[in-house]
Amino acid sequence: MPYSPLTRAVVRFLALFLLLASTYGLWLATFWPGVLGEDSVAILLETHNPDAFRSGKTVVWYGFVKLLYGTTARVEAPIAAAMLICALMLTRMLAWYWEQSLRKTLLFALAAIALAPHMIYFMGTLYPDGLFAIASVTLLFEIWLCTKRRQASAASLIMLVLALPFAAFVRPNGLIFLLPAALAAFWIEARSRTWWLLITGMWCVVGFISTQFHRSTTQETQFPLAAFETAGFLQKRAMNELWKQYPHMNDPWVLQDPKVSPATIDALSRQSSPEKFQQYRDPAYWDMLVFHPDGPQIGHLSPEDKHTIVHEFWTYNLWQNLPDFAASRVNVFLSAALAQGGFPALSYASNVLPRVPSESSYRRFHWDRAESWAQKVHAKSYAWRWALWTPWLGLALLLWATCWGVRHKDKSILLITIPMVVQLGGVFMFSIAGEYRYLLPFFVLPMVLLPAMATRNRDIPAKHLARAGHTQPCSQ
Question: 215-218: long-range contacts at Cβ-Cβ below 8 A with a sequence spacing of 24 or more?
Fold first, then answer.
């Protein structure tokens, strides 16, 4: 007896989900309780005592960790839940490729993204970045699929419920995804639109109410950029020092204006000397300026001095140092894209667990041989990160899809590419650390852009059931 299309779809979904969930589960059991870093310490301490500590993370990430760690005192609980959610969202896209006979896309996405060692690492780390990357791409996938079909299936609505809060609210820059999510409703049929707007509105209300119960202190945008780049502008220039020894080499009006305004120097000097800013300025990280115990600890500047640094940066310092600023932006971006920065060690949880209230145990199952083998896999993956980790494919597809969407006025394509172009511009312009995790969504981005471009010239029929003349959301 032949199986129905729905039965085959369910079997495909379950097979892929079991593959991903079992792989992620084995990884977590091997590296129990997961990977923890300093940001993990911050969020765990905040959930334990929010009045005394602020992690700088969003209220949704705080609420997610609070719900799972705060009620169990086990750090593996939010990590396991995040990996399970990621597995569900990835399975949805992979199963759809299978259904559409996009076999090459299926094999590539499965092997190079869903099962990539570094992707499993980021999903298994108590940081929001892996979850954010997969949720944002899943949300874009559903926006593209529904606007192309002009109908939201039951599966798409379920994924919207699952992906939207993590895509839009788990990181501050995710708010931009609310715009394409809202606009998509205008390109789908009425019944689907109602459900789509209800789900989107529900999560917006939940997000707003959450901020009333817990005020998060997410990192500023302008001051870190202004402070980081201004510290770079303070670096000594050997040629300028040479010219001072030959004062008549240049006309008197050449090199007359200071590179950094006196108001900026005064504001910085109230915290530390300019020499200390020069000493602790790293080309790809601002952390030394903020967190190093012997550094200038620029975060302790008064609000008035912070305002002065931002104002002087935009009105004077930037324009006196525009080549240095452009070079710095490229350097930070490439440091992130080529994964040149640091990552929490697979064993760093042994350092974190004694510092937080927890009932979790380190390496509970003692799978030493499996851990040794997995560490070798991660090390080999890291050695080839310039090829296996970099987001160049996602960025190239983004450029192609955006140009194609503009040329052909394809709304379904532009709804998913424009937000990512804005995201890319934001990362390039405002990032003050060469962190690969900030570009992780662009590594995952081929999972929506490959099928979108592969089917750009053909319609994707909406499967539906008709009952009493009404169109129902389809099941796939």
Answer: 215/59, 216/54, 216/56, 216/57, 216/58, 216/59, 216/62, 217/54, 217/56, 218/56, 218/57, 218/58, 218/172
Helices and strands of the chain, counted as H and E runs: 25, 2
Strands 470-471 and 466-467: what pairing?
A: antiparallel
Residues 6+ apart with CB under 8 A from 341: 284, 285, 335, 433, 434, 435, 436
DSSP-H helix ranges across 124-221: 129-149, 154-169, 178-184, 190-213
| Residue that has been written with the tokens 């199986």 in this structure | 3
Cβ proximity of 118 and 388 under 8 Å = yes
pLDDT in tens, 36-77: 999 999 899 988 887 777 777 888 999 999 999 989 999 999
What proportions of the chain, in percent to the nearest 5, are helix, strand and coil?
A: 70, 0, 30
Question: In angstroms, rounded to a whole number, what is the distance separating the alpha carbons of residues 84 and 272?
Answer: 47
Please count the other Cβ atoms lying within 10 Å of the Cβ belonging to residue 267. 21
3-class SS of residue 476: coil
Nearest-CA neighbor of 430 among 224, 234, 281?
Answer: 224
Distance CA 34, CA 80 (A): 8
